[in-house]
Amino acid sequence: MEDTICAISTNPGNNGAISIIRLSGPDAILITSKIFSNPKFLKAESHTIHYGYIKDNMKKVDEVLVMKMLAPKTYTTEDVVEINCHGGYFTTQKILELLLLNGARLAEPGEFTKRALLNGRINLIEAESVSDMISAKSENARDLAMNGISGRLTKLIQNLREEMVSILANIEVNIDYPEYEDEEIVTHETILPKVKRIEKELEEIVTESKNSKMIKEGIYISLIGRPNVGKSSVLNHLLEEDKAIVTDISGTTRDLIEGTFVLNGILFHLIDTAGIRETNDVVEKIGVEKSKKTIEEADAVILVLNYNEELTKEDQELLTKISSKKNIILVNKNDLKQKIDPSIYKRKNVIEGNTLESEGLDQLKEKLIEMFHLAELQQKDINYLSNARQISLAKKALENIKNVQNQIMENVPIDVLEMEIKEAWNHLGLIIGETYEEELIDKLFEKFCLGK
Amino acid sequence: MKYDVIVVGGGHAGCEAAHIAAFMGQKTLLITMNKKNIADMPCNPSIGGTAKGIIVREIDALGGLMGKIADQSHFQIKMLNSAKGPAVRSLRAQADKVTYPQNMLKALNKTENLEILEGIVEDIKVKDNKIASVILSNGAEIQTKTLILTTGTYLKANILIGSENTEGGPHGEKRSNHLSDNLKKLGFHIQRLKTGTPQRIQKNSIDFTKMKEEHGDQEYYTFSFDEKPCYQINEQQKCYLLYTNEKTHKIILDNLDKSAMYGGYVTGIGPRYCPSIEDKLVRFQEKERHQLFLEPESLYYDEWYLQGFSTSMPRDIQEKMVHSLNGLENAIITKYAYAIEYDAIDPLQMKPSLESKVVEGIFTAGQINGTSGYEEAAGQGLVAGINASLKLQKKEPFILKRNESYIGVLIDDLVTKGTKEPYRMLTSRAEYRLLLRHDNADIRLRKLAWNIGCISEKQYQNTKNKIEKIEELTNLLKTKKLKKTEENCKILKDQNIDLPYGFTFYELLKRPDVNLKLIEKLIDLSYESLIKEQVEISIKYEGYINKTNRDIEKMLKIEEKKIPEDIDYNKIKNLASEARQKLIQVRPESIGQAARISGVNPADLSILAIYLRKEYGKE
Known about the structure:
CATH superfamily of the largest domain in chain A: P-loop containing nucleotide triphosphate hydrolases
CATH class of the largest domain in chain B: Alpha Beta
CATH superfamily of the largest domain in chain B: FAD/NAD(P)-binding domain
Structural class of chain A: alpha/beta
CATH architecture of the largest domain in chain B: 3-Layer(bba) Sandwich
Radius of gyration of chain A: 28 Å
Order of helices and strands of chain A: EEHEEEHEHHHHHEHEEHEHEEHHHHH
Oligomer: heterodimer
Strand order of the largest sheet of chain A: 3-4-5-2-1-6
Number of strands of chain B: 20
CATH topology of the largest domain in chain A: Rossmann fold
Largest sheet of chain B: 7 strands, mixed
Shape of chain A: flat
Strand content of chain B: 15-25%
Distance between the termini of chain A: 17 Å
Largest sheet of chain A: 6 strands, mixed
Strand content of chain A: 15-25%
Distance between the termini of chain B: 47 Å
Structural class of chain B: alpha+beta
Number of domains of chain A: 3
Radius of gyration of chain B: 26 Å
């Protein structure tokens, strides 16, 4: 690429002490040297750090450390400079502005990673992991992103593809040299155990990947119940745990999100049932209809009921609605007189408590941890697919492999069922970017966020 | 005197090229060293085989001769892979090395607009980078508008037996000494390739009782879609199967340094799929034995071809090797195995039409393009002949796509990936092979052929009739239902099969336990077996065929993304240098073709696509 790009690579919302501005491209060094006070910088060796200050003409802007990294051993394989400055929104913006004035161009979202990919520095799966890392919200998610970069996942998939290719090759030999009886003949019987083994491994990847999606994207919880059962208190109690992590996240699904909290390193999103917070005084009909949508979107539902009231028709409807989902029922206000039908306790995952005295809330969290097996999750070697595209490809490959088994049962000729194996092989190839699809690459780049 | 088309070389590529050009109305001259060697089979005595048999059918569908001539000239025919799925079945015939060339020459002699001349072409004259004329070794100059080079293995050919190295082509023919140098001067890249052929054994010195008989099929087949079988099943000749043994292996391994290959006397690159016996032993040491076949070469002389025993060992070692085989203890070797090295051009310099990118009007086909095999040569010859004619008619070139034919796969592979060893067609090279079957080559190709005028009206009509019949039978199966009659119940009971009543036969045929033979017992299906085969395959494998069609759609989409001819790859920043080099060399016509070039990876394609969008607007 002919031009040099730059961008603030730390999260602008973060109020940390240090901000980093990154440049990449043939003029990265030259442009920096124009606004950097240290005269040794221009001729310095690669991978060195330099102290000085950023100047706007003769005026000091900020005291900085500047890292110089020459091509090709850099993230983008181009010349890269990183300026560490003293945070502060205005200072950082000022430095960025100076760089732009001196010939750099503002990077498009994901452009650093795009350059890294196009320059062959990283492969597709690593690129996706980088994107994941940038948007990683919790500790586990960051670990997962790191794992992708190490290429272990790639290796795993390469191994599976190799197994498939050896089956494919054997089938081809049988077809092209039918009269050579010395070669092992692939039959339905010989292929079945191999296919089963592949299926098992794929199955494992897919299941574990679902967990890993959970780690990365968090778990969506819908909190429902009639007005005045105490939902908002539950909400406030859950969120109080870790206010620092409550951020406003944009995005369509997330418009509904009231807040997030962390349990065992996993991010939980609470999906609001439209204006819970106002329901304390405003009479609003929050009917079953409204709840339905959030129930659908959630990974689990918490239904709050009132100990002090009989089950209403609405309650009954909500109970039916949640039966197909993972759910926890919190019977609130147990400090009052019991009016609720005791048959409710026959259900699974029922907790009693009262939000006034914060009773039952720890139990609620424990239930969540138990429900999503979070305790075990943490100990696992996290080495699985982590975004929806990858997971769906792995699922397709799994589907292919399952089809192969059905076809073996139906006595479909080997050279025909081979198509399915080939397709599975291609699907896995797409995950690690070894099959070409233009749109895929375009889509991927759209997903990258600025800064890496 | 100026010809429209001159074809140099009368092998399988040359015959098809000359015939089709003449058929398409071009004044055509075929120049061969020796009329006796027209359509010669210097190696194995067979036509067809896996994948190759499908090519022969495609040649027939496109108006070529090979299928018809093979039908007239074989003494055994077999359907290979008949126990496997429909996509990989393929015919192979043991063709008679005497009658095949004779019948071909007859067919060529009958072809209007076609002359045959004996001579050796040694130079080519070019004017304004266009072909002008050829110069023969006797100095004669013949002018032409287009030239098709089908020189086979004759360019600077060397025959190697052990450390012996003699200049010359197969059968002790002369070689062309200067043509490849002159091609080089014109800008063609020349590479050196190698192939080989095994021993011929005198029939009465073979003890066949020690070998396993191999018979022809008990069913009548023809390659041609238009001809009836002209042989008797019971008069087919036998071939024989035998094996190498420990003794053979010891002789070979002990004398490895004497082989031309291992002794370092060969510079050409030989094919991996057709290795010499010493190659096989070295590469697959764990194998205790290797299969060999003995096949008669002709009914008119007594030489047998020892398939699988090709070697470049010296004569005395070959004697020992052959005599170590069971049944060949007293064998008389009439021809020793030899390796042959020859010059070929780099097919990356050819367009998909098989016209060269180097000089306008020069086409190449067959072994000169780096392929191996009679069928591969014939298929290319046909396409080169068609395209030379279309060029003269000022029409668009005829380019078969990968989803349309094996010939299309073959040519696309050659001009996109090139080849460093003699290229042989394999079924695995065809990603859409479920559609590229031997049984539907006419359905796939005859309409295309008719549109460009390379088949007769009768041939087109035959295919149209077939398609009509297929539709008729399909509709019949779609409308008729299995009724619960006493008779049907009894038939099913006899067949020991339980079927639901009230379903159409079309639906029933999709079941794994039902085939058309069974349905025929239930309703009257008076159709030819070829029609029934077609219908059965397309119903039974409908799901898979649809799937393949979806893949093809995807492929065609990126195939449609054309790359402008004037693109300058040096202007595209950030292409990996290997990719840039390959793209400059191949100059692919579409992103799809570019994607198939080895060494061009997804990142390069993405850069290329972005560049095209930027430079040439949204396409």
